[in-house]
Design goal:
The structure holds two protein chains of two kinds.
Chain A lengths: L5 E7 L7 E7 L3 H12 L7 E6 L11 H5 L23
Antiparallel strand pairs in A: 1-2, 1-3
Chain B lengths: L2 H24 L8 H29 L4 H6 L10 H4 L5 H22 L5 H29 L3 H14 L11 H8 L6 H19 L21 H15 L6
Helix pairs in contact in B: 1-2, 1-8, 2-6, 5-6, 5-7, 5-9, 6-7, 6-9
The chains are: A alpha+beta, B mainly alpha.
């Protein structure tokens, strides 16, 4: 089915808080895309919710920009909040 | 026949509809028009075979000393009680989808009624199956709309499929002594009520698909009583070959 557009599939698992990208599928339209995503990606009890989005609508960073975009954060360890003492009374953080 | 025998036959009919259609759909594995469709068809097939297993296990218990595998693999054509619709060959994808839609639209209201059956096992299996079949019906209905409202070719193919399958739809709602006894016992479904829901759903989807509903002409029947088209023999030969050639094989 070469004429069917490509869709990216995002699944929220039963215990997950966020939808995660799991792969892509072809489908004729949005309704069928959700159904195809269900049939291809939730066969083993993986899902509680599905998002699909036309692949062409995803804007991505250019692979060539990797160095200027991401290398500068390599040596900024102070951006990880690991230097604080967490009081014992705080159970979740 | 006693009510016990009626119940056995009633459960076998439910089992055989699911088993035969599940086996038919599995024939698409490796041949479906797209990967997504292959997965979807295989999912439906496995749902139906799972339902058949539950029904056959119950039927085997009712018969005493039988097991589900024996009922699936060691009965001959005349002992199968499925409706003629589900044994019809896959044909092209429009034919497969049309057969699925016409059956799903019957299967869902049937199971929903049986979920309230006076027989707790029937009610339990039906309630579990109805969830799966709700999805089957949604999917086959969406495909009917896309075939009917798609290209000239998809439309031509689905019209042809509906015309060829329509004569097999009457049997779904034709009751006999078994249906009457089970309805009277509060175990079975009211086929007239099932037909009403089927009819409403078919009209709704056909309207959206721009398809005309064929006239109810002469209807084929006999499958429920064991009189089948030639197609079922070939299907069973393939399905039963291994356990019959190697009766004690384990896998």
């Amino acid at each position: 089915m070469k004429e069917w557009p490509l869709w990216e599939v995002f699944i929220r698992s039963k215990h997950g808080l966020a939808h995660k990208h799991v792969g892509s599928i072809h489908a004729a339209d949005a309704t069928m895309a959700v159904e195809n995503a269900r049939d291809v990606y939730t066969r083993r009890n993986e899902g509680a919710s599905i998002w699909v989005v036309r692949s062409e609508n995803i804007v991505s960073s250019a692979p060539g920009d990797k160095e200027i975009l991401f290398d500068p954060s390599d040596d900024k360890v102070y951006r990880h909040p690991t230097f604080y003492e967490v009081p014992d009374e705080i159970e979740n953080m | 026949m006693s009510d016990d025998q009626h119940l056995q036959t009633y459960v076998l009919r439910l089992a055989d509809n699911a088993l035969v259609l599940g086996q038919r759909l599995s024939e698409w594995v490796g041949h479906a028009p797209a990967l997504e469709e292959e997965m979807a068809t295989a999912n439906v097939s496995l749902d139906l075979i799972g339902q058949a297993k539950s029904w056959l296990e119950y039927a085997a218990e009712l018969r005493g000393g039988d097991d589900a595998d024996r009922l699936a693999f060691h009965r001959d054509v005349l002992d199968f009680h499925n409706t003629l619709l589900v044994e019809q060959p896959n044909g092209d994808y429009a034919m497969t989808i049309a057969r699925q839609f016409l059956f799903d639209a019957f299967h869902l209201p049937l199971l929903e009624q049986l979920a309230g059956s006076a027989d707790p096992r029937v009610a339990e299996i039906a309630a579990k199956s109805a969830k799966e079949v709700g999805y089957h019906l949604r999917r086959s209905g969406e495909w009917m709309i896309r075939f009917g409202d798609g290209t000239d070719e998809s439309r031509r193919r689905v019209i042809d499929a509906v015309e060829r399958l329509w004569p097999f739809t009457g049997e779904l709602f034709t009751g006999d002594a078994v249906d009457e006894a089970m309805l009277a016992a509060g175990v079975g479904a009211d086929l007239a009520a099932v037909r009403e829901r089927w009819s409403g759903h078919v009209d709704e989807v056909f309207a959206e698909a721009g398809l005309e509903r064929p006239e109810d002409g002469w209807m084929q029947s006999g499958g429920k009583q064991g009189h089948h088209s030639e197609h079922l023999g070939y299907l069973l030969a393939e399905m039963q070959q291994l356990p019959r050639a190697y009766p004690d094989a384990r896998w």
